[in-house]
Amino acid sequence: MDGSIARPRPLLALFLRLLAALALATMAMLVKLAGTRGAHLLEMIFWRQALAAMLIGIGLAAAGKLALLRTRRLGAHGRRAVSGTIGMLFTYGAVLLLPLAEATTLGFTAPIFAVLIALAMFGEKIGRYRMGAIAIGFTGVLVVMGPGLGEADEAITLAGVIVGLIAPFMVALISFQVQDLNTTESAWSIVFWFSALSAPVLALALPFVLGPHDSETWGIILAMALCGALAQVLLTLSLRFGSAAVVLLMDYTALLWASLYGVFIFDRAAPASLWLGAPLIVTAGLIIAWRERELARLKRR
After folding, report:
1. pTM, entire model
2. What parts of the chain have a pLDDT lower than 70?
3. What burial letters (b/e) apply to 107-127, b meaning 16+ CB within 10 Å?
């Protein structure tokens, strides 16, 4: 990517987001697996950021394209780094506190939060379609999480649900920031500065959280960091070629991978409540995406 502004290519954007969903689901599985082996949340986020910055820097230097990292918007990158790091704390935290499929399903509420952010921060008018979608989406959340908050499923806690809902709120907020940066910055610049600015801050926590690990655990942490870096590039590229309202549709495929990982890696099948509530959340996201596209079409007239 050598330009700052790319023309819309919706099919490419959808494909990139599909790959991003797979990478994110795999990363979440590895986060949970590393957590069961004693890796600390802050430690995992540090390695994810440090390795991403290092690999992108080395790769661009080898290709003679370090100029792609030039920026006049370091302040905007800094704000994105702050919100992105907070977002990762909640996203990884949800994976550690909740079963994988449930944490993934809560992540699908990001389009709902995107609508609420547009209402609160940008004064956008929200009509009956999107208000209805918000109601449907949060009904789905109650269906998915309601039974688990009782004695039926001790793996689901109120703290986990709260963390799991803050995570998609941050994803929605960050999507607006990334789309703004995409108007002037290369995709590599956005991902590099996010990682490079946050890794030194996270390193301050290492003396308090870094522990000894065997070679297999280090391998899991490394694989997690690589999946996270790949997912970040794919997410950023998807928002370069398509709108957030459209590409977010592909995120729903992550539930398939999360469910498979839950069964084969953690020996836990998703409960019936998830398969009843998840379609409501997905339907809400589809309604929002459809309405966003209709509104964009009307504006072009």
Report:
1. 0.85
2. 1-7, 146-155, 244-246, 248, 300-301
3. bbbbbbbbbbbbeeeeeeeee
Mark residue 30 as left, alpha or beta (left: phi above 0; alpha: psi -120 to 50; beta: remaining).
alpha
Residue of 37, 14, 13 whose CA lies nearest to 224: 37
Locate 162 and state its tokens: 């709260």
Spell out the alpha helix ranges (H) of the chain. 10-36, 41-62, 74-97, 100-107, 110-122, 128-145, 158-181, 187-203, 206-209, 215-241, 244-247, 254-264, 272-300
Query: Looking up tokens 């989406």, which residue turns up?
Result: 137
**Segment 126-157, tens digit of pLDDT:** 888 888 988 999 899 888 876 555 444 556 78
pLDDT at 147: 58
Cα gap 194→24, rounded to integer Å: 17
Q: Which two tokens stand for residue 178?
A: 């990334």
Whether the Cβ atoms of residue 92 and residue 41 lie closer than 8 Å to each other:
yes
Least Cα distance to 111 among 225, 249, 296, 234 occurs for: 249
